[in-house]
């Protein structure tokens, strides 16, 4: 194999890019011509409008009644002039009324006319008086925008034909729900609540009160048996202040547990108890130190 020189590689790359760009530019598109919109009325009169893409239907077009038949014929082809063999076209009607919001699409089988290798004319016919048409439009009269959709595997076209007026003889039909709705009173719901717990008896509350006060009674009795002397507690000295704060801290503990019994939770008890515990330890140590110093000074 002969290796390519740098100049030859650049030329090959340029040719490859040119081929890709040529393929992109050669993208196929659909064209339509000989577009004819016909309204066949019930009295055998016909209203015919010939269009050229992308022109639209005139606003002076008479309204379409439910006794009429409309037909749209057209000749599609690709931009390179080759013919298209279609199997189906979709003619879409969308209501311009923002309140109604009715839209229907007709995937109609095409009627092909013409032979040979050239372009072939196709037509879409819709009987506005058929049951399927009435159900599709829900009997709603008004202005509808019409769009023709045709497509192949390589290209597609959406041709906006403009707006037409559709008139139905009867009132608009209210669509029936796919699942029948039934709103009827249901059975009455009776809620059954758990019976409230019975209050504890009075004697149990009194026993609990005695158990709470018993330790204090035991403490006072133990002080009496041990010969507790409180006469020096009221002597005017620095120990009196620290002793008063220490006993106040002990009373605060009793009040804290009383509040815990009434309204505080465990986390609040631990929080306030931690703060009060630090204060009790500090002032208790100061009170004991000053009390010991007072005893040493008086030698008793």
From TrEMBL:
Keywords: Endoplasmic reticulum, Membrane, Signal, Transferase, Transmembrane, Transmembrane helix
Keyword Phosphoprotein: no
Molecular function via GO: transferase activity
Cell location: Endoplasmic reticulum membrane
GO CC terms in record: oligosaccharyltransferase complex
Record-level GO BP terms: protein N-linked glycosylation
Membrane topology: Multi-pass membrane protein
Transmembrane regions: 203-228, 240-261, 267-288
Keyword Transferase: yes
InterPro entries in alphabetical order: Ribophorin_II_C, Swp1
Highest taxon above the source species: Eukaryota
Name of the molecule in the record: Dolichyl-diphosphooligosaccharide---protein glycotransferase
Species annotation: Synchytrium endobioticum
């Amino acid at each position: 194999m002969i290796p390519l020189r740098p100049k030859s590689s650049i030329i090959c790359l340029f040719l490859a890019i040119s081929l890709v760009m040529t393929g992109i530019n050669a993208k196929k598109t659909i064209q339509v011509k000989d577009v004819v919109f016909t309204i066949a009325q019930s009295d055998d009169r016909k209203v015919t409008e010939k269009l050229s893409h992308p022109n639209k239907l005139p606003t002076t077009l008479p309204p379409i009644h439910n006794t009429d038949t409309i037909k749209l014929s057209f000749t599609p082809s690709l931009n390179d002039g080759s013919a298209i063999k279609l199997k189906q076209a979709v003619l879409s009607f969308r209501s311009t009324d923002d309140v109604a919001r009715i839209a229907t699409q007709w995937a109609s089988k095409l009627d092909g006319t013409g032979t040979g290798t050239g372009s072939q004319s196709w037509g879409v016919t819709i009987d506005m008086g058929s049951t399927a048409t009435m159900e599709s439009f829900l009997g709603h009269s008004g202005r509808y925008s019409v769009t023709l959709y045709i497509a192949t595997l390589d290209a597609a076209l959406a041709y906006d034909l403009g707006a037409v007026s559709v008139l139905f003889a009867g009132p608009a039909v209210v669509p029936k729900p796919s699942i029948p709705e039934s709103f009827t009173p249901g059975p009455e719901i009776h809620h059954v609540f758990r019976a409230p717990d019975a209050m504890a008896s009075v004697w149990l509350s009194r026993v609990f009160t005695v158990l709470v006060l018993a330790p204090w009674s035991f403490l006072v009795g133990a002080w009496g048996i041990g010969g507790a002397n409180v006469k020096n507690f009221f002597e005017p000295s620095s120990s009196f202040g620290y002793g008063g704060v220490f006993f106040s801290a002990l009373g605060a503990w009793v009040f804290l547990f009383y509040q815990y019994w009434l309204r505080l939770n465990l986390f609040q008890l631990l929080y306030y108890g931690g703060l009060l515990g630090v204060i009790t330890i500090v002032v208790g140590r100061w009170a004991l130190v000053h009390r010991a110093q007072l005893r040493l000074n008086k030698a008793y």
